[in-house]
Amino acid sequence: MERIGSLLFMVTLLIGLPMVASAQDDSAAKIVAKVTEHDFGVFKESDGKVSHVFVVKNEGKSPLVITRVISSCGCTTPTFTKEPIAPGKSGEIKVVYDPEGRIYPFVKTVSVYSNGKKGPLVLTIKGEVVQ
Question: Could you say which architecture CATH assigns to the domain 31-130?
Answer without folding.
Answer: Sandwich (2.60)
